[in-house]
Amino acid sequence: MARIEARIEDRLAQNRYVVDAGRPHIRVVPHTIPSPVLRALVHACPAGCYAETDRGTVEVAPDGCMECGTCRVLTQATGEVEWKWPRGGYGVLFKFG
Ligand code: SF4
Hints:
Blueprint: H1 8-12, E1 16-18, E2 26-28, H2 36-44, E3 50-52, E4 58-60, H3 70-74, E5 81-83, E6 91-93
Antiparallel strand pairs: 1-6, 2-5, 3-4
The structure holds iron/sulfur cluster (SF4).
The site of iron/sulfur cluster (SF4) has 13 residues, from helix 3.
C-alpha cells in the first residue's frame, strides 16, 4: 500500500480559527526600533503572524496563531510582546488525525 505524505502547510491549513473581533490575544508594544528578537519573529512564528512594516517596526496579526508560545518566550526579556490566552471559544481549533 502506498504511503500518503502530506505537506505540513497542507495539514496546518485544516485547522480552524475563531477570531475574537476587537480583542486580539497578542499585542506588540508600540516601538520605533524593534529588537533583533522581535524582528526574528517575522521568520520564527510558525503561523506567519508577524510582519515588518514599511516604517521598520514589527506588527502582529494574531488571527491564525497556533498558541505555540514562541513569541511569548522569545520576548520575555524585552517585554515587546503582550501575550494572553484567547478567551474560551476563540482562537485555534486544531484538526487532529
Ligand atoms: S504564539 Fe506562536 S503561532 Fe502564535 S503568534 Fe506567537 S509565535 Fe506565532
